[in-house]
Specification:
mainly alpha; MetI-like fold; 0% strand; flat; transmembrane
Length: 222
C-alpha cells in the first residue's frame, strides 16, 4: 500500500507541483468561459439561419455544420494555428484554441438548437405572429425559449463535452490542465500529477453529469 501511495498519490510531489496544476486549471477555465458562450451564441445563430427561406443560405449552413462536425477539433486547431499564417492570418495560441473550440462546438449546438426549434408546434409561431409580433420578436420571446427548454439536457451535456475538449490546446503549447500535469510528471518522474489532474476533471464535471441526469429524468416525466 505504501508503494502504491508513493507512486500514485504522493502528496509531497503534489504540493510541489500544485502551482503548475493551478495555472493549468486557470487556463482551462478561461478557455471554457470564453469558448462556451461563443459556441452557444454561434450555434443559436446558425440554427436560426436555417429558418431562412433562401435555399442557398440553408445550403451554406448545412455545409458548415457538416464540415465542422466531420473535422476533429484537434485537426481544426492545427489547421487554424499552423495553416492560416500561409493565408496571411496569424492568431495567437489562445485565440486559435478559442476559434477551433467555437467553430466545432457551434456546429453541435446548432443541431441541438435546430431540434429544439422544430419541437415547438407551428401553431405557437402563427399565434405569436397573429398578435403583431415580428419574426424576430416571435422567435425571441416565444419559440427560442420553448425550444431551448426542450433540449436543455442536450445543451448541458454538449457544454460538458466542449469543456473537455479544451485539452486540445496543448497541441499549440498552451499549458491547460492536462498539459501542465504532463509537464509536472516529466519533472517529477511520477504519475501523481496526472492522477491529480484526473481527479480535478472528475470534480469539475461530475456535478454537470448529475445535472444532465436530473434534467433528462424531469423531461421524461413531463
Amino acid at each position: 500500500m505504501r508503494d502504491f501511495t508513493t507512486t500514485f498519490l504522493n502528496f509531497d510531489i503534489l504540493r510541489e507541483v500544485w502551482p503548475l496544476l493551478a495555472e493549468g486549471l486557470w487556463l482551462t477555465a478561461t478557455l471554457a468561459l470564453v469558448a462556451v458562450p461563443l459556441a452557444v451564441l454561434c450555434g443559436l445563430l446558425v440554427a436560426l439561419a436555417q429558418e431562412a427561406r433562401s435555399p442557398v443560405l440553408r445550403g451554406i449552413i448545412v455545409a458548415y455544420v457538416d464540415v465542422m462536425r466531420a473535422i476533429p477539433p484537434l485537426v481544426l486547431l492545427i489547421f487554424i494555428f499552423y495553416g492560416l499564417p500561409f493565408l496571411g492570418l496569424q492568431l495567437g495560441e489562445f485565440s486559435a484554441a478559442v476559434l477551433a473550440l467555437t467553430l466545432n462546438g457551434s456546429s453541435y449546438f446548432a443541431e441541438i438548437f435546430r431540434a429544439g426549434l422544430e419541437s415547438v408546434p407551428r401553431g405557437q409561431r402563427e399565434a405569436a405572429r397573429s398578435t403583431g409580433l415580428t419574426w424576430g420578436q416571435s422567435m425571441t420571446y416565444v419559440v427560442v425559449p420553448q425550444g431551448t427548454r426542450n433540449v436543455l439536457p442536450d445543451l448541458v451535456s454538449n457544454t460538458v463535452e466542449l469543456v473537455k475538449q479544451t485539452s486540445i490546446a496543448s497541441a499549440v503549447a498552451l499549458q491547460e490542465l492536462l498539459r501542465s500535469a504532463q509537464i509536472a510528471q516529466g519533472l517529477t518522474y511520477n504519475p501523481t500529477p496526472l492522477i491529480a489532474a484526473a481527479i480535478i476533471y472528475f470534480l469539475m464535471f461530475w456535478p454537470f453529469v448529475r445535472l444532465v441526469s436530473r434534467l433528462q429524468n424531469r423531461t421524461a416525466a413531463a
